[in-house]
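Dear V.,

Thank you for sending over the compound details. I've combined the ligand you provided, pyridoxal-5'-phosphate, with the protein sequence from our construct and run the structure prediction for the complex. I'm sharing the raw inputs here so there's no ambiguity about protonation or stereochemistry in the SMILES, which I know was a concern on your side last time.
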Amino acid sequence: MSAASPAPLPRFLLPDNASIVDGVLHIAGHSVPGLSERFGTPLFVYDESHVRDRCRQAVASFESVAYAAKAFFNKTMARLVAEEGLSIDVASGGELYIALSAGVPPSRLVMHGNAKSERELRMAVEAGVHRMVVDGFDELTRIEHIVGPDETVDILLRITPGVEIHTHDFISTGQDDSKFGFTLSTGLAHEAVERARRSSSVRLQGIHVHLGSQVFRADSFARAIAVIAPALRDWELPELSLGGGLGVPYVTGETAPDFGDWGTVVRTAIADEGLGAIEIAVEPGRSIVASSAVTVYTVQAVKDLRGIRTYVAVDGGMSDNPRPVLYGSGYEAFDPNQADAPRPATVRIVGKHCESGDVLVDDAAIPRGVAAGDLLATPVTGAYGHSMGSNYNKVLRPAVVFVSEGGVREAVRRERYEDLLITDLG
Ligand SMILES: Cc1ncc(COP(=O)(O)O)c(C=O)c1O
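Below is the predicted structure of the protein with pyridoxal-5'-phosphate bound, written out as structure tokens.
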């Protein structure tokens, strides 16, 4: 939860190419209120150069980087990360379909999922993805049925190292009690390695671990490497993927390691464990894209419940950002027409959905006097907002624009009422 602070929004929460001109927020030279006028609200505005910069930092820090599509995905994003030299981690048939539709070569795709259906496995095998990350014994059996007699699929085995990191339970996945992967401590991981080695349908290339999301201490990755190192030395496999999870600051006062710090900690831990020959891959999602975007809303109603609190209701909510409802995640808010103004008022910013829990910012600091018709924006909404969004209450999904010095690209158009009927057979 963000603590109300009368100070203006800290600049570090804005995209790299944000500037404030006479109080008005611009991104890559484009007025954010102007974009809202043109594309309507709610609106996701992405700073394209910011995303490219994070991709370059990741590529400079690790041998192999796959962008985790779940954070935010569409054809524009798929092409952009591929242009920057990243592979893509897809975790469903839908993400795979979009990546292939964008023209990303299958040799740049890594297929994830703890409950891959036969159809999804077939899609991935037939496309020829680079690596299948196998999550359970049933999946191995299914792959054996799907691949032809002379074919093999290159796989990683996802293992859970039993490392608990400081994050929300639902986004912490490396602990023993998890629906993902083969547990190391109970011997399942060892059995999986033996089973995969006996199979003529798969070629075991390495191990995958993902600790969870919003990892704020790079040494958590060193701990995971120390825990799995004895098994890795036994198995002598050529590849290790450390998943994603690098944290990002969302609110005043938070700090997180950057890609350089992450790479240094990992390289040191790998060297300390004598694992220098192994190829290291990572799968960042949030740290590539979260802080590159802001979401802009229009205030629809302000209610002062005298002596209780003030509610500010906007034209979006849990359908474009469910993270506060799911995890109690904190955000900041500001008015993009007075982006450097002090924020002495404390309000609860809520959405338009029929749920009392539809809160975007619990104790938001905003400028005084914000009224119906004004804009409000939340920064650091580039990850797990649009991608986790929904049509709850048949609310239309927002447009997504990418802005750069070269111009404005509408990557995803705003939904129309007709879109709601596309799959409705009446
Ligand atoms: C297997 C795997 N890889 C990568 C990621 C991306 O994590 P993040 O966006 O926190 O970097 C996730 C997130 O859930 C994941 O489950």
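A first observation: DSSP finds eleven helices and 20 strands in the chain.

Warm regards,
I. M.
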